[in-house]
């Protein structure tokens, strides 16, 4: 049992604060780790968030990162860090996959997110904990998704916490509640296409699958519908791109979900209580409902 939440606004606002409040309302569904994927103003530079779990001083690690990127001929705009987390801003590379592979070849270094507008923040602990660590309540943006995790089949650590970014693709993220029972079969198929996976979490597979379909020309809604034809299990998930969020529920509809849609926002969560932490359906024009089996829906910002 995990908790998922998402929100999209027509205009930029303190979207991080909204998601922290929503996730605090469903923290009981996942006390092990918490994370958010937030979309702010698009930057011409590419921003990579990294987590370092090695034993070397962070200042030394930044030097190793600079040397790695310089060898690839990539111009670095800035490198900063917050505890064990680092941010690298750089010019757009010719091959994102090459850059990611070279960075993760550095011992103890793990990629958390890649994007021009996407930033993923996640760690062990509660929503209030990561809010204090990353100042999420001050983040201005239009949309985002979040997750509270109850670890059932893999370790409790930052790498396996949600959200997941889509390896090899910038600015695509997902959060997931449930299980894909045909995970290994689908993973092998994706690996045969040349995709690499960084964890043994089935949620990472969903992210790569959706990004792959988008790269082939599908719109988000079509990609979500197609996923229901290919994924087996009981699940619900949210996906986000630079301009859109959407959800999909499996054919049994076993995992709960609630939606409140207003004139200038849409809020989605595993439980109504998360939405009520921030929004009310009493305002004229707001519509609340609970999606059913095989339901798919998307919204543009």
Offer a few descriptive terms.
single chain; 301 residues; alpha+beta; Glutamine Phosphoribosylpyrophosphate, subunit 1, domain 1; Alpha-Beta Plaits; seven-stranded antiparallel β-sheet; five-stranded antiparallel β-sheet; 8 helices; 16 strands; 34% strand
At a glance:
By secondary structure, the protein is an alpha+beta fold.
How does this model look, in words?
The structure is a single chain. The chain is an alpha+beta fold and 301 residues long. 27% of the residues lie in helices and 34% in strands. It has 8 helices and 16 strands. It has a 7-stranded antiparallel beta sheet with strand order 7-2-8-1-14-13-15. Strands 9-10-11-12-16 form a 5-stranded antiparallel beta sheet. Helix 5 packs across helix 6 and helix 6 packs across helix 7.
Summarize the helices and strands and which ones pair or pack.
Layout: E1 3-13, H1 15-25, E2 33-39, E3 46-52, H2 58-71, E4 76-82, E5 85-90, H3 96-104, E6 109-115, E7 118-124, H4 127-134, E8 141-149, E9 164-165, E10 173-180, H5 183-192, H6 202-215, H7 220-230, E11 233-241, E12 244-249, E13 258-261, E14 265-269, H8 272-276, E15 287-289, E16 296-300
């Amino acid at each position: 049992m995990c908790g998922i939440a998402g929100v999209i606004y027509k205009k930029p606002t303190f979207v991080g604060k909204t998601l922290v409040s929503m996730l605090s309302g469903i923290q009981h569904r996942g006390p092990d780790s918490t994370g958010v994927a937030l979309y702010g103003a698009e930057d011409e530079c590419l921003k990579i968030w990294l987590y370092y779990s090695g034993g070397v001083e962070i200042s030394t690690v930044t030097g190793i990162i600079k040397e790695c990127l310089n060898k690839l001929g990539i111009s670095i705009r800035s490198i900063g860090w917050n505890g064990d987390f680092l941010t690298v801003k750089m010019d757009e590379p010719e091959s994102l996959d090459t850059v990611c592979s070279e960075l993760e070849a550095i011992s103890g270094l793990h990629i958390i997110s890649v994007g021009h507008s996407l930033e993923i923040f996640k760690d062990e602990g509660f929503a209030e904990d990561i809010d204090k660590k990353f100042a999420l309540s001050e983040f201005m943006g239009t949309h985002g998704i979040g997750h509270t995790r109850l670890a059932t089949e893999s370790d409790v650590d930052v790498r396996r916490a949600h959200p997941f970014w889509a390896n090899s693709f910038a600015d695509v993220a997902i959060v997931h509640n449930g299980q894909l029972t045909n995970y290994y079969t689908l993973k092998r198929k994706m690996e045969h296409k040349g995709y690499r996976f960084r964890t043994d979490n089935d949620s990472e597979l969903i992210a790569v699958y959706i990004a792959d379909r988008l790269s082939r020309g599908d719109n988000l809604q079509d990609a979500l519908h197609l996923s229901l034809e290919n994924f087996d299990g009981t699940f619900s998930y949210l996906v986000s791109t630079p301009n859109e969020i959407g959800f999909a529920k499996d054919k049994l509809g076993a995992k709960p979900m609630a939606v409140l849609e207003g004139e200038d926002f849409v809020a989605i969560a595993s439980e109504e209580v998360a939405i009520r932490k921030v929004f009310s359906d009493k305002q004229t024009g707001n519509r609340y409902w609970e999606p059913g089996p095989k339901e798919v829906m998307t919204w543009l910002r």
